[in-house]
Design goal:
Length: 535
């Protein structure tokens, strides 16, 4: 079993992990490819060489010496990239952002050790052009009382539809940081963490810059590189890619439909529903809003603004203002391989499912489809949680997703029925024997029957009191057990798998960087199964 029962994964991802024939037909590279051969296939492109120069320029001269050392290793070697990326979740939320990054670094380090003549660069593609504010503007933590608490930064109406790289933090970010600090348990790491957050997430600071600085600080010393595709120089270099997307839009749509059809024939559901009217391009309007383009024949439509462009007009705009064009979920992987010598892309289960739709599109554009590496999947076990799991002999992978069902399974309320049955039996015997004994007493001395009845009553009253005391004690024990089981469940499945819900700052506040160092030492170079890591 690669994942716990409570963590639902899509069927195609499961097929890919097992490397079935079905999965093999949908991806160009096997899970364990010939790395040097694949490196030769994806590298050597002159344009990619220029992009690597820009990548180096975007990362040069920072405070992390390991980044400069990483850039030095590029000299005189064949260079390929292990790429991952994610939307710019507030305060590195959710946790799997960290796990994707760690997975890319560990794979790159492993390959660098094995193949000294090739330079494998771990690269985080900053999804700054994404404009889904709701997806990135909140974070969740476990507060002082162990309750799940959610914090959100309200969107300013004037900025709706803007890409995240065009957004800055409003003044309310200070209030959010203060509220977050008040909710978390104070530790020796709290003061430096919140000094850092206050300095990085300042009103007026770019959302992209703050995300990058936070992730870079967390992985300091690991040689992680960042790629900002929204850089004007990158957009200048991307004209040919977007020109091909525009000129071959109909063919590209057919390729997406073909990939989806292959997926359906294999018995799997398409992760991304391909819509025939879509052009699979975004275009920034005059006011900066990022809008999806549709296509009808030779005409490209911006339905939200009621504007249409001929193919020629759109190509002219591309020539004049390439920065206004950006990719969609299906064209971004293609753009990524166009720009960078992408050997492998580190992906989550959902991403792997939609990458399975892309092989025909890669072939259409003459691009080598990279290897797709499943990211690490982790649940962090805090010391108290680990002790409770051991005490109650709970295997976390078998936990029920529903808290009530989980608690009900582990509560030992059978003690109450056993107690009740015992005392009911005593009452039954008392009624049977009392009558017999009173007859005997009456024969000996009738005046003693009344005192005898009172004695029987007091005896049973004492037994009932004992029964009630025992019932209360069992319930008290079960209340404590319920509280402990609730704590365990919230820590491991807080409204969903931990890695998909909690923010990295929760663990930074409690453990500094120890938890991340623990992950680097405990996890293998590549994903094999979901791991429970004690910190």
């Amino acid at each position: 079993m690669t994942h716990p029962h409570y963590m639902k994964i899509n069927a195609l991802y499961a097929e890919y992990l097992r490397q079935t024939e079905k999965a093999d037909s949908l991806f160009e590279q096997k899970l364990n490819p010939d790395w040097p051969a694949l490196a030769r296939e994806v590298s050597g492109n002159r344009l990619q060489g220029r992009t690597l120069e820009l990548l180096a320029d975007q990362n040069r001269g920072g405070a992390d010496d390991s980044v400069d050392k990483r850039l030095q290793t590029m000299k005189g070697k064949q260079v390929v990239c292990i790429v991952t990326g994610q939307q710019l979740g507030l305060f590195l939320s959710p946790l799997y952002i960290v796990y994707k990054t760690l997975s890319a670094i560990k794979l790159a380090e492993s390959l660098n050790r094995r193949y000294g003549d090739i330079c494998f660069l771990p690269v985080f593609w900053l999804e700054g052009e994404d404009h889904d504010y709701e997806e990135v503007s909140s974070l969740s933590i476990l507060d002082k009382s162990g309750e799940l608490s959610r914090f959100s930064l309200k969107e300013e109406s004037a900025r709706q539809g803007l890409s995240m790289n065009k957004r800055v933090f409003p003044g309310e970010i200070k209030e959010l940081i203060y509220a977050l600090k008040e909710s978390l348990t104070p530790t020796e790491f709290s003061k430096p963490l919140f000094e850092f957050l206050t300095a990085v997430y300042r009103p007026g600071t770019s959302w992209l810059a703050a995300f990058r600085q936070h992730l870079a600080a967390l992985f300091r010393g690991r040689g992680l590189l960042f790629f900002n595709a929204g850089d004007a120089r990158i957009k200048e270099q991307s004209r040919d890619f977007f020109r091909e997307v525009i000129n071959r839009n109909g063919e590209l749509l057919e390729a997406f439909l073909s990939g989806s059809e292959e997926l359906k024939k294999s018995g799997c559901k398409a992760q991304v529903n391909v819509q025939p009217e879509r052009a699979y391009l975004f275009f920034n309007a005059e006011n900066g809003r990022r809008l999806a383009l549709n296509r009808r024949g030779e005409t490209f439509l911006n339905r939200e603004e009621g504007v249409s462009y001929s193919r020629g007009e759109l190509l002219r705009l591309l020539e004049e203002e390439p920065g206004r064009f950006s990719s969609t979920v299906l064209t971004r992987p293609l753009w990524q391989s166009y720009l960078l010598p992408t050997l492998s892309y580190v992906a989550g289960p959902g991403e792997i499912a939609y990458w399975a739709q892309l092989r025909p599109a890669f072939n259409l554009l003459g691009l080598t489809m990279p290897h797709v590496q499943p990211r690490h999947s982790v649940t962090l076990l805090e010391p108290r949680v680990a002790k409770l799991l051991q005490r109650f002999h709970i295997e976390p992978a078998t936990m029920h997703a529903d808290m009530r069902a989980f608690i009900h399974r582990h509560l030992k309320e059978k003690e109450l029925p056993e107690l009740s049955a015992y005392f009911e039996e005593m009452h039954r015997i008392k009624h049977e024997k009392e009558k017999e004994l009173l007859e005997i007493i009456g024969k000996i001395d009738p005046t003693l029957k009344g005192p005898a009845q009172k004695s029987f009553y007091r005896a049973m009253e004492s037994l009932d009191q004992l029964h009630n005391r025992l019932v209360r004690r069992v319930r008290e024990k079960n209340t404590l057990l319920t509280d402990q089981l609730t704590h365990v469940h919230r820590a491991i499945i807080p409204a969903g798998p931990q890695e998909r819900v909690l923010s990295a700052v929760y663990f930074q506040n409690k453990y500094g960087t120890h938890w991340l160092e623990r992950l680097f030492t405990q996890l293998p170079d590549r994903f094999d199964r979901h791991r429970y890591v004690e910190i």
